[in-house]
Amino acid sequence: MKATYSIFKRGMKGVYQHCKEKHLHRYLAEFDFRYSNRIAVGIDDQDRTEKALKGIAGKRLTYRSPLIQSRPASEDRPWRHPRFKARKKT
Fold first, then answer.
1. Cβ atoms of residues 12 and 19 within 8 Å
2. Contact call for residues 25 and 8 (beta carbons, < 8 A)
3. What's the whole-number mean pLDDT along residues 36-60?
4. Most CB atoms within 10 A, among 19, 60, 79, 89?
């Protein structure tokens, strides 16, 4: 258990640097998979890759719909993100 936590802590500080609490279970699942499928257990990179690809079979990554739909091409001004204010012409 101590070695697993050490690897997780090193990965979070070195690779990811930040993790929101709502995504913590995903990071833990990734580190658990990598720790359980390491070379010391007899699983090399190719075997680990094949296992990972079998695990994603039939799953689909979905994204949220955009907050703002793009403007019709008929409008003469370019689309701007709502956070950025339009510049005034001088």
1. yes
2. no
3. 87
4. 19
